[in-house]
Amino acid sequence: MEKTIKIKYHSDKIEKLRYIDGKSDWIDLRAAEDYSLKKGDFKLINLGVSVQLPKGYEMLIASRSSTFKNFGLIQTNALGIVDESYCADSDVLMWPCLATRDIEIHVNDRLCQFRILEHQPSIVFEEVETLGNDSRGGFGSTGIK
């Protein structure tokens, strides 16, 4: 079932949001400005768009798999979460990053990606004395190869 995201572009220099060659259901976000970062710099990268998500949905924003290799950038919040209340024209999507080397970022560089998910259902916590399941060996028990 298709869902509609209303989008306001704050720059006519960035490409419009779209799926990339049908390779994924994640959608790339692009730098809306040029940046010059030195190793160790933190920066909020302007992504040039504001969105209104469908009711009952939230947006997850993560680095693209090639972002560290190509730019030496690490997303500082590991995973960005945008809830449906962040929907005004002035609520511009930003990408928080840390530079691990000197780097130039240019308008339209694809740095991160997003997808939307329905809000999780209400959860009830039931306290028990035991979960009653067999142990699989604990954290890290499946090995490295």
Describe the structure.
- The protein has 145 residues and is mainly beta.
- It has one domain (6-118): Deoxyuridine triphosphatase (dUTPase) (Deoxyuridine 5'-Triphosphate Nucleotidohydrolase, Chain A, Distorted Sandwich).
- It is 3% helix and 38% strand.
- The protein has one helix and ten strands, in the order βββββαβββββ.
- The chain has one helix at residues 67-71; strands spanning 6-9, 27-30, 35-37, 42-52, 57-63, 73-75, 80-82, 92-99, 103-105, 110-118.
- The strands form three sheets. A four-stranded antiparallel sheet has the order 1-4-8-6. Strands 2-10-5-7 form a four-stranded antiparallel sheet. Strands 3-9 form a two-stranded antiparallel sheet.
- The longest helix has 5 residues, at 67-71.
- The chain is globular.
Secondary structure elements and pairings:
Elements: E1 6-9, E2 27-30, E3 35-37, E4 42-52, E5 57-63, H1 67-71, E6 73-75, E7 80-82, E8 92-99, E9 103-105, E10 110-118
Antiparallel strand pairs: 1-4, 2-10, 3-9, 4-8, 5-7, 5-10, 6-8
Question: Can you tag this structure with a few keywords?
Answer:
145 residues, Deoxyuridine 5'-Triphosphate Nucleotidohydrolase, Chain A, four-stranded antiparallel β-sheet, globular, mainly beta, 1 helix
CATH fold category name: Deoxyuridine 5'-Triphosphate Nucleotidohydrolase, Chain A
Tell me, rounded to a whole number, the average pLDDT. Answer: 94
- Please report the total strand number as a whole number: 10
The helix-strand sequence is EEEEEHEEEEE
